[in-house]
Design brief:
Blueprint: E1 2-4, E2 7-9, H1 21-28, E3 39-43, E4 50-55, H2 59-78, H3 81-97, H4 99-110, H5 114-139, E5 142-144, E6 152-160, E7 163-167, H6 173-176, H7 181-186, E8 190-194, H8 200-212, E9 220-222, H9 227-234, E10 239-243, H10 246-259, E11 262-266, E12 271-275, H11 281-293, E13 303-309, H12 310-325, E14 328-329, H13 345-360, E15 364-367, E16 383-386, H14 393-396, E17 403-409, H15 412-420, E18 424-425, E19 427-431, H16 435-442, E20 449-452, H17 457-461, E21 470-471, E22 474-475, H18 480-485, E23 488-496, H19 509-531
Parallel strand pairs: 2-14, 7-8, 7-10, 8-9, 10-11, 12-13, 12-19, 13-17, 16-17, 19-20
Antiparallel strand pairs: 1-2, 3-4, 5-6, 6-23, 11-22, 15-16, 18-21
Helix pairs in contact: 2-9, 3-5, 4-5, 4-8, 11-12
The protein binds nicotinamide-adenine-dinucleotide.
Length: 533
Amino acid sequence: MIETGRLRAINPPRETPLFTPELLERLAQRVSASKPHTPYTLYSPFNGRVLGVFPLSNAQDVRQAVERARQAQPAWARMDARSRARIMLRFHDLLLERQAEILDLTQYETGKARRDAQEELLDTAIVAQYYATRSPGWLRPRRVGGTFLGLTQTWEYRHPVGVVGVISPWNYPLVMAVSEPIPALMAGNAVVLKPDLQTTFTALWIQSLLEEAGLPRDLFQVVTGGGEVGEALVATADFIALTGSTPTGRKVARQAGERLIGVSLELGGKNPMLVLEDANLEAAVEGAVRGAFANAGQLCVSLERIYVHEKVFEAFTRRFVEKTSSLRLGATLDHRSQMGYLTVQRQFDTVLAHVQDAVAKGAKVLTGGRPRPDLGTLFFEPTILTDVTPEMRVYHEETFGPVVSLYKFSDLEQVLAQINHSEYGLNASIWSKDLGKARALAARIQAGTVNINESYAAAWASMDATMGGFKASGLGRRHGQEGLYRFTELQTIAIERLMPVTGPAWLPRGWYGRIATAALRALKWLYRLWYRL
Ligand code: NAD
């Protein structure tokens, strides 16, 4: 460990990773790509060296992968949901058993700190356990109220949509390769996954583990490539679950709209944190450090703007700067580092551009603000800005990096308006000892999740509750029952009984109308009593 100014940094020596070049070669053979194919060389942000080579898929490969998945899907859908669940639970066990290997691989692909990789591993296991245990019950046909006067018996059936195309980003490769595919598979679908190029090996590792757990071959395919391969998948799959940026979400929604297929879109955010004057400041500072710098800020729900009440602004700022300045930086295969690298060059460029733009227009850097080539080419210090104004990019654009802006407020109504004045609405965080007040405020924030006295993990880890975005942060929801049901087609089956719903044939139409009118009036009064209206 070396001391560098106020920011403490860790540099290698690093341990040898547990995965081997042979494993990566075997994984590369799993890509759905026909020969001769174009090889892609993957560089690791962890050490700047070549990690491995895998083939790139083309549009024809995507069509073939979807076709193979389509062939394999009906048998899987016919299988009892509890048998599917047992396979998923085996996958859960294997994942926990092999965690050291996949944590190493994920760290090498992303450059993230061990603690961030571990967070996603645990989340992945939670998702597997949750959907394996809940789906069989949720997928049973559901008896619903019949028609008027009980003249029908009615059920809702849930059918798989067919082949679900999953398109994922690089920031949480383990979670993203699993949290959409698992509910899709549990609902009886096949999946074709297109991970970001940077995190292809993690996706292939997951595919291999699922097969080891008993998932039939061909049911889960991995295709590789960039946006054009994603487009080919949107052109052929029966449903698309995309996690990515808002501009990509718009493109995918347009293309899916043409084909009239369903989509769920988990997109960007510019997530606010609100610190009220009665907040536990020490806890709020801890929450701010984690919320802004977990995964080096490359987290869709990370906090990028913090509004602090004027009475506690100075105390909060002092402690926040102190804590941030003493973070241990770097990437090692153990838990010493508190913040790792940025994963891709374009993200590094955005972070640098946002900070430079803000500084040029008058923002003050309270700590950080610099790249750290001594630690790695893609390393940027955890950065706190103040005096940020609407002319600056960092004020309203998603940075998706370790940069957070501090704002002082005095009027709650004004700050709520400022918080909601954003095209995004993914996550928010409120800190106060008055939980009733905090909940009432939370309901007024336009965001899919709001965490009280926590930054992002409380809502994310509440697996029974949905997760997703308002406004340009997305469409549809992951997690909870909704997270499974979006991958199903809903069918109504109704049996007529006693007499025709449209009235007996012998009854004159005029009489039928009069009887139905009287019955509707009577029923309305019964319902008013029942529902206390
Ligand atoms: P991105 O939109 O550039 O890429 C995401 C994926 O979409 C990649 O696999 C990419 O190859 C693919 N893609 C790109 N263009 C496509 C097209 N035209 N058709 C189909 N697929 C296409 O996003 P990124 O930079 O990799 O990821 C960062 C973004 O993801 C951030 O905005 C972040 O907020 C968001 N994100 C959101 C969540 C969430 O749950 N809401 C989670 C993680 C990341």
